[in-house]
Amino acid sequence: MSSSSSPLEPVEPIEEGTPERRGELWVRHYLLRLPGTVEETWPVLATPEGLGEWLAAAEPFEPRLGGAVALHLPDGTAEGHITAWDVERVAEYTVEGRGRIRFHLEPGRPTGTTVRFTHESEQERDPGWRERFERLLARAARGGG
Question: Distance between CA atoms of 57 and 19, rounded to whole angstroms?
Fold first, then answer.
């Protein structure tokens, strides 16, 4: 058996980077591989209906740069704004007390969508991204992202 990797070997759908400290912030990176196209995946990450299926109810949600967003999480509501918005490419939300979360979408190779996720927060503790992303993957497996 060869010890080299074959490009045909399955890849993990969730890859977690090592958290890093940048000044007062903790930065976490994840690489997600979702089965749907970018067009199918975008609504799951950038609409209140999609976010509500795996992350949190989002109301209000104004889909534009500077638009208001509030994530209704189990331990309270986090209000903020959309701080980056490039349709079918980048959605970024900065919310009070939770930091900044950013989704960067690109076509997967050979299929699907690759999502580069970044979370910047003053809190050292991981808020449970892996569990949330597992819900996202289950949602994506049902179709439409």
Answer: 26
> Digits of tens for pLDDT over the chain (145 positions)?
444 444 555 678 999 999 999 999 999 999 999 999 999 999 999 999 999 999 999 999 999 999 999 999 988 999 999 999 999 999 999 999 999 999 999 999 889 999 999 999 999 999 999 999 999 999 888 875 5
Exposure string over 13-47, b if 16+ CB within 10 A, otherwise e: bbeeeeeeeeeeebbbebebbbbbbbebbbbbbbe
Distance, CA of 23 to chain centre: 23
C-alpha closest to that of 124 among 24, 50, 46, 7: 24
For residue 118, give Cα distances in angstroms to 22, 100, 110, 121, 138: 13, 8, 23, 10, 20
Return d(Cα 101, Cα 2) in angstroms, integer: 40
